[in-house]
Amino acid sequence: MSTQEKTALILVDVINSFFEPGHPNYYKAVEDVLEPMRALRKAASENNIVTVHAVERHRPEVFHDFEWKKLPVHHLEDAHDADFFADFRPQGKNETVVIKRRFSAFFATDLALFLHEQKVTRVIIAGVKTNVCIRATAQDAFANGFEPVIVREATNSNRPHLAEASLEDIERYMGRVVSLDEGLEMLA
């Protein structure tokens, strides 16, 4: 990494809805990304690297939400399914939260502004699901002038063929797809 590059870690939707068995968005393979995400977060913490927890939250049902035209009502503010999973609650001086209402952590949030203010040029993106929120976040990271890096072991989907296609597109058109070891090196 040159002196001009600065990296941040973005953890996308590490919430009960995806990671706690019994919720509609849970799938067994999601558990495979937990330890790689913990390793990335630990490396970021040890090296004073900004970690952003990008989590989906929606207002109560009394308010219309366009996303519900396509998906059932989900991730309402203060609901258990929208809460941070297990030990992924933000902690430490270098961690912050961005609330998102769509798939991308950048769309209609202040994430790009925040990262530019921190002089970040590269974002390592981990979480779920590769073909939906991870891809949308990577695409918008690229559109906002950041190099998106996806750590292969730290993301997956209940639609593996779509996850692989998304990783191929990210590598080809937007950023990089790296191994966990490479991701950890970028956070060193």
Automatic annotation (TrEMBL):
Organism in which the protein naturally occurs: Rhizobium setariae
One matching Pfam family: Isochorismatase
Molecular functions (GO terms): hydrolase activity
SUPFAM superfamilies hit by this protein: Isochorismatase-like hydrolases
CDD domains in the cross-refs: cysteine_hydrolases
Keyword tags: Hydrolase
Record-annotated Isochorismatase-like domain positions: 7-181
Classification via InterPro entries: Isochorismatase-like_dom, Isochorismatase-like_hydrls, Isochorismatase-like_sf
Protein name stated in the entry: Cysteine hydrolase
